[in-house]
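Researcher: Good morning. I'm working through a list of sequences from a screen, and I'd like to move beyond sequence-only analysis. For each chain I'm collecting a predicted structure so we can compare shapes side by side. This is the next one on the list. No need for commentary yet; just the structure.
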Amino acid sequence: MGFSVTASFAVLFLAGMISLAYLYTSAEQAITLALDAGDEKLSRDYAKLYGDIDVVYINATQQGAVYDLEVRIYNAGDVELNSRRMSFIVNGTLRAPDYYSTEYLLPGNNLTVAFYSIPGTGTGRLRVVTEYGNSAYASYEVV
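Model: Good morning. Structure tokens for this chain:
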């Protein structure tokens, strides 16, 4: 009887230690993921707060029933922006530019984008939105 109590205690103790090792590993991974998510949120909040863009130049050139639009955007903030992650709304329609001058828009630099074969005439409206939610509006006249 004495050996079976010792053996069962050893088996239960070993099972408890293995369970604690799995529990520690899972808890550590969950805490690490939560801390990484917090850091990412702080980074995005910083980018939203200190990111700023301006539309500094627009040229709309009539080409028959359609027109070509060239837009220059200035990064007036402190955050590097990915130009491929920007959204462009031209006259209420989400459009992807046909041309980007650079992939990343660094603080203090300009980005030129071009849209080809946009239908319409007269005046137009453009909204540029960054991946962090900062935006700029501009109106233009098709010439």
